[in-house]
Design goal:
By secondary structure, the chain is of the alpha/beta class. It is built from nine helices and five strands. It folds into two domains: about 80 residues, Methyltransferase, Methionine Synthase (B12-binding Domains), Chain A, domain 1 (Orthogonal Bundle), CATH 1.10.1240; about 120 residues, Rossmann fold. Strand 3, helix 7 and strand 4 form a beta-alpha-beta unit. The chain binds cobalamin (B12).
């Protein structure tokens, strides 16, 4: 039997969920997700509440109001909630249309931003294959072919590893990959993306979702 919640009750649970993500309260976020699921709230609305929390975290991080540790605890809270939500989303016929291969380029071990982008993309109904950090260009090629990816996302946080990004894009072009390439990371600029022939660049996790959508449209 399906019980439809009154809008007020529903928005209270979703609001608690958003606030728990913002505050990085993993246990609270998990409990609110469990409650929302047991109350039969539309999984896409739950997802929207989670994403809203992370968007806020991203905004405050950019404004230097919070720092990496806060972003990390928020992301971990989001991850715990997503573990509960993902099977329900899949069950409700919510299947991703596009696959994104994402990773941090060779020589670079930074993954906080890349993980946030991956999380946001998952939240936006992309299937995400995360290759991790220090990923060689050939590994991206192989994963893109295996998973018939529509997109490849490259992350770099060091000015020294921006070279690896250039080499990776060159290899993708040489191999004639159909996947579009988007890049990001603190030292990356729109100009650099153009210079190396990437298809797009986004400054943060929230805008990477808009970018990904526009690239596969
Ligand atoms: C945390 C951190 C570390 C951690 C990384 C932990 C981890 N698991 O990631 C540790 C301690 C391991 C580390 C190591 C090093 N670090 Co470090 N690190 C940082 C720090 C403080 C924060 C980076 C971060 O996570 N930001 C938070 C996330 C949310 O932001 P973001 O990564 O920019 O991601 C957002 C966007 O860029 C975008 N984005 C990111 N990826 C992608 C991908 C796509 C496809 C898209 C569309 C968008 C996108 O969306 C993200 C979310 O909004 C920065 C300083 C800073 N303020 O940036 C230095 C920094 C990046 N590190 C730096 C350095 C020098 C190093 C070391 C070389 C230090 C050393 N001497 O050992 C090593 C390098 C190790 C290696 N080989 O990679 C320098 C780089 C300088 C430079 N010009 O190259 C920085 C800038 C610090 C500084 N001011 O000197 N570091």
């Amino acid at each position: 039997m399906r019980t439809v919640k009154a809008p007020n009750d529903m928005s209270e649970i979703l609001n608690t969920l958003t606030e728990s993500i913002k505050a990085g309260k993993r246990k609270d976020a998990k409990a609110a997700t469990e409650q929302a699921l047991s109350e039969n709230i539309d999984p896409q609305q739950i997802l929207a509440a989670l994403t809203m929390g992370m968007d806020d975290v991203g905004r405050r991080f950019k404004a230097n109001e919070i720092f990496v540790p806060e972003v990390l605890v928020a992301a971990r809270s989001m991850k715990s909630s997503m573990e509960l939500l993902e099977p329900v989303l899949a069950e409700s016929g919510y299947t991703p249309d596009h696959t994104v291969i994402i990773g941090t380029v060779e020589g670079d071990l930074h993954d906080i931003g890349k993980n946030l982008v991956a999380m946001m993309l998952k939240g936006a109904n992309f299937s995400v294959v995360d290759l991790g950090t220090n990923v060689g260009a050939q590994a991206f090629v192989e994963a893109a072919q295996t998973h018939k990816a529509s997109l490849i996302g490259l992350s770099a946080l060091l000015t020294t590893t921006m070279t690896a990004m250039r080499e990776a894009v060159a290899l993708f072009r040489e191999q004639g990959l159909a996947a579009k390439v988007m890049i990001g990371g603190a030292p990356i600029t729109e100009q650099f993306a153009q210079d190396i022939g990437a298809d797009g660049y986004a400054t943060d996790a929230a805008s990477s979702v808009d970018l990904a959508r526009s690239l596969v449209a």
